[in-house]
Amino acid sequence: MSVRPEEQGLFVGGAWVAPDGGHYAVVDPATEETVGWAPEASRDQVHAACAAAREAFGPWSRTAPGERAAILARAADLIRARLVPYAELAQAETGATTGTARGMQVGVAAARFRRYAQVEPTEWAIPPQVNDAGPMGRAAVMGALAVRQPVGVVTCITSYNNPWANPAGKIAPALAMGNTVVVKPAPQDPLSVYRMAEALEEAGVPRGVVNVVGGRAVEVGEAAVDSPDVDMVSFTGSTTVGQRIGEVCGRSMKRQLMELGGKGAALVFEDADLGSAVAGIGTTFSFYSGQICTAPTRVLAQRGIYDRLVEQLAAYAGRLKVGDPREAGTVVGPVISAAHRERIESYVELGRKEGASVVVGGERPAKDRGFYVTPTLLADCRPDLRVVREEIFGPVVTVTPFDDEDEGVALANDSDYGLIDYVWSSDVARAFRVARRLRAGGVGVNTVGRNMEAPFGGFRRSGVGRDCGSYALHAYSEVQSIVWPG
Q: What one GO molecular function would you report for this record (predicted)?
């Protein structure tokens, strides 16, 4: 059936069903107008989705990898063909600029389905081992094979900052490996995920292989995690929620993949190309309005260039156009909600009270409507300040000075987080030496760019496990060994 946006249904067992909990309004953060009406699932409906995924797992896991890949390829084509309307919806739900919605949200989602629409080897030979005669039997040459097997039913709980790329990065590799999925989208912008489900349905995904159940109630996510039919939980979101999910998963030994918070350190040395460093750090102000866990929000500047870097960052932030993300030239759109805007503003005020200097920003833009935050730069920060240590998740950058390499590395590693850090230096040998000393899952050397085949994930409270590229196929599989006498 064709589901109208104002009456969005759940996708359970291959059918679009009415939600037991009714609907709630999805609000455009730029205009504060209603985008559509999202469904509120009941706990029973979530468990029904998990049961449907369990029933579909057997046939889907035995489907030839080439057939699974063909479905993912068709889904990629459908998403790409509908890029403009899908991006318009994503923009309305998230407040992303037009370029971000098209290129980094819907465009990346299509690319991720395309990436996993290929068959990769799932088994490999282990060197034979010569065993002497003993209690385990006669002497023999033992052959072995390692085989990747699907985990089973995977609950995918996605983040609000990218309702296309984030779920696609979970669903595509999970399906490619033969798993079935239950997707619980973020409550702020779930409508895009239901469009993704429609594309997958049209691409030929069998009934029950993909299920989408959402809602604002905590019970919806809890049901998707604690269902006995679920074998693994893949979660992107806050560390606090991730810890609660981990506790539930631990009770029944469910597999976990966790991409959690970040407080990326950006070490800028005296010999750095300051233009490159400013442009990279400045993405914190512009990209998703700072609502991204990989942002270089915690700048550590060597004293020789500290004043110049602060001055240039302030000038950069001051030039950025804040406003309607649909207008040409807008660089900084709104944050996701009024509540989140207030949270960001409270951190800026806290920084003032803690002794940080507000160099630029710190006030609410003069807008009649929309949840806007002015790009804000906090200088003269000490490493013990809460604005330096805690994830703000908004267009706010802190700057702290350091003297030498050892101090810079120590300050960077003095964090509860460890997702992605950054190093700017014209001395490539030093940059790579420093990168290896940083306790982070990834390090950008003179760039904030990413290689999407590289493993992605964090140290410490930034997460558990790795995905992207072939590493995602590893994440959504178990390794089985088969041994035989030669």
A: oxidoreductase activity, acting on the aldehyde or oxo group of donors, NAD or NADP as acceptor
